[in-house]
Amino acid sequence: MKRKNYWFLFAILLLALTSLSQGQNLTPNKSSSEERKTMSWNPQPSSPQDTIDQPIRVVTHLNESDYKELLDINQSFISETGIQVDIRNIPDADAYHQLTAALEVGDGPDVMLVNSPWIRSLASSGYILPAESYQNSTNGSDVISPIIQLLEWNGYQWGIPLDMDPYVLVWQAHALQTLGISDIPQAGKGWKDLLAKQEGRKDKKLIAIPAGDAFAFAALMGIVGTNPVSPTDESLEYLSKLRMGIQFIEPGGTREAWTSLRNDDLVMMAMPASAARKETNTNGTLELRLPEQLYAENPFLLRGRSYAVSAQAQQPETAAEWIAYMTSNHSQQLWSAATGYLPALKEMYEEGHFQWIQPPIHLDQLLKPAEDKAADSLLQTEWEIFSKAAKRFLSGKMTEQEYREAMGGHPKE
């Protein structure tokens, strides 16, 4: 009888131990969750040889034609170095969410090529490494200064810029000359004179911009000399008079707009730099200008892409070698010539050997050291409000005062 009791007690003890063992993982505490998260972000290879044999994993956010161009440059890197690189593209609109979801579970790439405004968010979330950790020099002084502002967070630079595709003003010199004007006005009285000349063009439009495109709206305001958030009374008056001369380009109507520009039915257009540069291949009389003041104050409008190395990267030094190759002078020249995007390196815009960009892009303010500014500009913070208000104002559905009230400010003195 006593022996039966022993066996009964032993069975109860064994059952209790089994239940305790199974219950440890049912409700993991925060510290164990963080530990697993850290481990997944920093996977350890089984051996050094395994790491060497693994290809660099790259994720990009590009359209199909740009992706093919990147693959061509990447193939040159593989041929020259023998280092294997696997590139996967995510062209979808929700690419940011797809990428961060993969990074969250430890399934992210070694390198990513993404929109530059994403970098600060990726850095603050712990998904990427500071550039100083894998490069001896980030060459910040060699890059257009406002772009670097987009890549900085917590005192460090977190990305390596590749390019930019800002909206530019495009015009044909002879179209201006027929109006008796030698150059596009910078601001002020010059626009007043141009608008007076436009009144004699009967039913012809002065400028074409993509319909509903807030980046185009901002560029137009910058070219006229208007601060989109706190415009002066004078600049808003010019824009009000300009509204009758605006042709909004609907989807599918871009080719027709270029034809109108070529035939002098239009005087100018606001288009992405890449589209304008590609058009110069068939129309060599085009000239371009960037609203530099606007872009210096609002770097996100430069619409650039940058490389970053994942915090999960098993070979950060090799990843850095690939990025250095892809952002070298030679590669940037190949990339810019094929895609039309503008390079991020300052020396590409300087007189001499590197001045190969056609038509020439003359930069001044964007090449100067950037002033210390807030992380996000006021325009970036109020972007959704601006997008709606600018669309209504430029289409004549909102008065000057209503636009100013929508932006929540008073006229800039």
Automatic annotation (TrEMBL):
GO BP field: maltodextrin transmembrane transport; maltose transport
InterPro entries hit by this protein: SBP
Disordered as annotated region, ranges: 24-52
Has UniProt tagged this entry with the keyword Glycosyltransferase? no
Give residue spans, biased composition: Polar residues.
39-52
Signal peptide range: 1-23
**UniProt keyword Signal present:** yes
Q: Name one GO cellular component term.
A: ATP-binding cassette (ABC) transporter complex, substrate-binding subunit-containing
Which terms in the Gene Ontology molecular function aspect does this entry carry? Answer: maltose binding
Annotated SUPFAM superfamilies:
Periplasmic binding protein-like II
Q: Which UniProt keywords apply?
A: Signal, Transport
Q: Which domain of life is it from?
A: Bacteria
Task: Describe the family membership recorded for this protein in Swiss-Prot or TrEMBL.
Answer: Belongs to the bacterial solute-binding protein 1 family.
The cross-references to PANTHER family, in alphabetical order and at most eight, read: MALTOSE-BINDING PERIPLASMIC PROTEIN, MALTOSE_MALTODEXTRIN-BINDING PERIPLASMIC PROTEIN
Any idea what this protein is called?
Extracellular solute-binding protein
Task: Read off the lineage from the record.
Answer: Bacteria, Bacillati, Bacillota, Bacilli, Bacillales
